[in-house]
User: Fold these one by one.
Assistant:
Number 1:
Amino acid sequence: MSGRKGPVVLVIPEDVLEERCDVAAGTLLTPSRAGAVASSDIEGIFTLRAAAQKPLLIVGGNGWNARFRDAIQRFATQNALPVVTTFRRRDIIDHRLPCYAGEIGIGANPALLQHIRETDVLLVCNDALSDINTIGAGYMEGFTLFSLPCPQQKIVHVMPDHGDLNRVFRAELTLVAEMDSFAPALADHMPMAQPQHRCLDADAARHLFARGDP
């Protein structure tokens, strides 16, 4: 009910299942929520993006709806930012968009992984950078996509739970925020001028990664 949402496993002793208790009708837990992101932090993200020559956006996790997905897609498209989805989260981004570059995780395209290693600014939205989504060498070798504990990339890491931030990889900027406030804030910010240096044309990248070229 708080922080990063996901499956929950309850281990209950068998004798407890045979007990009875009185619970007031209508008793519900209210999920806790992270605060809205500050405008100064949004400005900081755009400043990093403007200075980057090889930027990349990674989106993942759950809790996305049509409005939040549309917002993050508008942000990526308006700012010429290639976007990658995490393992089994491909539905966050419309694959027909020129900004969509692929999926990381198990079986990720080696060409895409190599491009991620070469990025200089990485914006990670709603993913904890777990072992699955940081497989960078061999099979199921997590936490190898970035240098430990300090990646060579400047990482902006945004999560609804502070416990996931700086847990494995140290970020340049960490923000505790829900995507329902963060994604629209990015999309509503004035797009930056088209960069003079494009690390990778997103449409060309999509074809490159699809072919699996090194």
Number 2:
Amino acid sequence: MRHPPRSVLLAVSGAVALVGTMTIPAVTARGATPACSVEYSVTGQWDTGFQGAVKITNNTAALSGWSLSFDFADGQKVTQGWNAKWSQSGTTVTAANESYNGSLATGASVGAGFLASRPASGSNAVPTSFKLNGTTCNVDPEPSPTPTEPPATGTAPALHVSGNKLVDASGATRRLLGVNRSGGEFMCVQGYGIWDGPVDDTAVKAIADWKANAVRIPLNEECWLGLSNIKSEYGGANYINAVKDLVARVEAHGMTPIVELHWTYGQYTGNSAGCSDVHATCQKPMPDAQYTPSFWSSVANTFKGDQAVAFDLFNEPYPDRATSTTTQAWQCWRDGGTCPGIGYQVAGMQDLVDAVRATGARNVVLAGGLAYSNDLSQWLTYKPSDPAGNLVAAYHGYNFNTCASESCWNSTLAPVAAQVPLVAGEIGESTCSHGFVDRVMKWFDDHNLSYLGWTWNTWDCSSGPSLISNYDGTPTSYGIGLRDHLRAINP
């Protein structure tokens, strides 16, 4: 779903509680300013790997190119990275500038991030010495704490695909019926926080009190990776830990968390562009090859020990608005690469499934179709290959979409649902009432399928479908339809 204008978002933004960061600050001796300083961060960690970041500050004459080097002591190996050309020889890691960030003025800083493996039985010691263009930077990092992982055995069930159903460990069918909790996709990149409104236990319990059993959590690629344009208090370790904390609370109330990539990097100014910004500030037509595979590698490593968490690969693809033919659009959707009409290299759905499965994660994965996930007409033809067999089709349905009638659902959704699980990750309407969603819920109930309402936020429903007027769960006139229906079918 697209979002209300920024003025509306600012009006409803709430306070955010930040959890502890794992950044290792640059510590310098009193007196002269060092030639350079480096902040090294472990922003996420799992059994055999971690996500790291460096922030380099140049305090000497301006540089036209830079190369940072440091050594690992515990067998760590860089596997991929961003905002630098990463390489490793033995224990020595080198990060050299990309073509677009080689200039580093006096006093200027640049950030880069990476994913790395580490021995399961070893520690993850912080490098003790950093060199920028051969000059030693004056840093004295301290060991970083081990992050707290979300509970792997909460009250939410572990899920997998069986035929065209989602089932728990006992084989019982699990329909995902719930809400979206928007905020994590836009607050951080706009510089105002991490969540829009409270996400404490009381606020999550209010969702559960509607008899919801699933919560979809939209995320921002740049905030998770801690890229340099994101305020440090809202990105990297702070953002990741906040997401993990919310996931744990959702699970503690027996609900399935669906972590979803909403906004991504990549400049697109073509048909139906949401913004001209290269940064992750609006919905782009497809995920980008530069950062999205790294995002999903990190997310999958973070949650792979907890199969109660589902992964929604990309919010609302719309390569069909950029390309000239439907075939080109579906090929772009699955295979990525150079796509007609899209100026950046695209990561296709197959690339993202591969990134998730390469970590060993077997979590359920959702993939939405074309036309903002509203068109599933050729989803089966272009279905990505999933070695884990846990792939789900995702659909979004609003009253203003093309496929918004029983006839379309019968002709395009029913054939997909006959072969794989189908989840309506977003349903809603712009009328501030619930006539359309009532029809959607009836059709999906009749076909034993899943659906989640957009959105559990206190916006004016005329600027975007908002289920509540207060985070205590007070429904809007639109939200009454979903609340009363969930309570009726889950007494």
Number 3:
Amino acid sequence: MVTTTYTVAFEGAEARLIEVQCALAAGLPAFTIVGLPDKAVSEARERVRAALAALSIALPMKRITINLAPADLPKEGPHFDLPIALALLAAIGVLPAEEVAGIVSLGELSLDARIMAVPGALPAALLAAEEGHALICPRASGAEAAWVAAAPVFAPATLHEALRHLTGESPLPQALPGAALPPAPGMDLREVKGHARAKRALEIAAAGRHHLLMIGPPGNGKSMLAGCLPSILPDLTPAEALETSMIRSVAGDLLNGAISRARPFRAPHHTASRVAMTGGGRHARPGEMSLAHNGVLFLDELPEFAPQVLETLRQPLESGEVAVARANAHVTWPCRFLLIAAANPCRCGHLGDAARACSKAPRCAEDYLGRLSGPLLDRFDLRLEMPRIDWRDFATQPEGESSATVAARVAAARARQAARYRDLPQIRTNAEAQGSLLDDIAAPDAEGREMLAQMAERVGLSARGYTRVLRIARTLADLDGSERVRAPHVAEAAGHRIALSLPA
């Protein structure tokens, strides 16, 4: 007799259904796990044996074979412990086989039969709902999985509780979803003195998801402006919150099952490695780009990042996903993020300051910013030079608009884009529009068209640059509530685009 139950294996943020089969046969006593298991899965037999012994359940003196199908898919992680134990208990008659065959389960077993938390409960619950199964997961993961209301989720603390539930002796109540996290307090744009042009660029970036590069002397407010960005971004939509939470779930980053509607803000240090940025490693975990999905990736001191790390940004910025290819894994992670970068104009940071510039200027600026490749710089829609503000001017600067005021305009612009692209699920913001669609929605009026042609001839815009000017102009029109892209929108978009064309 062969008993079956189900669990999951992860490919990126997606869960794949795995059938766990258990067969008992006559012969020398043995406990074998097949189906391409890794070391953690192979060690499950010792954890399962000890957990059953803690419940005074003896294994039969037979040959036990566990098969994890499909056999050609690598199985990684300790979450296979619980489904292996349940299939085995059904095979020896402790549990009803029909009950075990109707569930998806995951969890790591301790030697005293406790069920320990594992990452990935949220995508596992989604798959269970699609397959019409109930989910059994560790109690610590129940609040996370319960956000999927379409699947019954039960979260026992021990293997004994799971047995009593499946035999009907003591049914468990369904797990309840965790509390939604309130937005974290952040900086307000009102606190930033001056920099009206930089604030405008930040608003455009937030409204249309346009990547922004800020170059200016140290201590000039670049990092502070980037820190204000979350306060003007709209909350995640339910679909976006689910996508983001699935990535965090696989990464083991959802604490107490709490899901937040705030957009992620990731700011890795410039010493981050290529694997830390793109994801990968032994188990192909998500990197900083994927953890920033639907949110913001802030790279401070951009030229200080290793060149090979920066070059990995080029393809994901265009496609919205990053492919991680390893010898034992090939997965694709979503990474549709807003890139905000900051850099000093040179190594000392005082280029353009006659009183403090070093003797190597302007050669030092060329060498320093020359670490950024032209193709990478071309992917920044908005390029901003931030001049130094004298402390005397800083003290007399009037207070600007609050984040709430700017956020209202950004939310209105995002709502117009959501309505425009409601029949195109692969496009959410103006930064993703291209081809004939962009020609239809961002065609400027006659004056704007002539202005754009003159600018392309004078500056020598690439095809990508021309497209990005149109995207920015479309966002500016959305911020103004205009159905048509007009000459002022093209002029402002061009000003933000060509600011650093010559240094680039």
